[in-house]
Amino acid sequence: MTLRIAILYTICFLLNRCSGLARAVAFLRWLGRGKERVAPKKVAALSHAELWQRLSQGYRWLPLPVQCLEQALIGWYYFNRYGRAAEMKIGLRLHPLYSHAWLECDGEVLGGIPGLELLEVMADYPPWQD
What residues contact 7, with CB distance under 8 A and at least 6 apart? Predict the structure, then answer.
């Protein structure tokens, strides 16, 4: 799973930087289309936080800078791919200027930071719909 995460992260990093967020999201939706939304047994037994932690382990081997947006993109793909309705949100604070991306799944915030409630949600990507 770690190698797949690293490859997908690299593709999302390049797509996001070169083509924009909309194309990266469209690519992940395209990649997950028509696939069965059932997780392998060892992944199905994991809690949301444990799955998020497992995904985060794949980032440490990359020579690329790991940003919250790409982490949220990959998490959004894998959570939805494994049948967990995850919503990706991007928030912004104007003074001082700061932005952050995170996931929400079954009311649980993944990839959150202290002060997340101070951010205004600027973009909201709902779970996949077949």
Answer: none
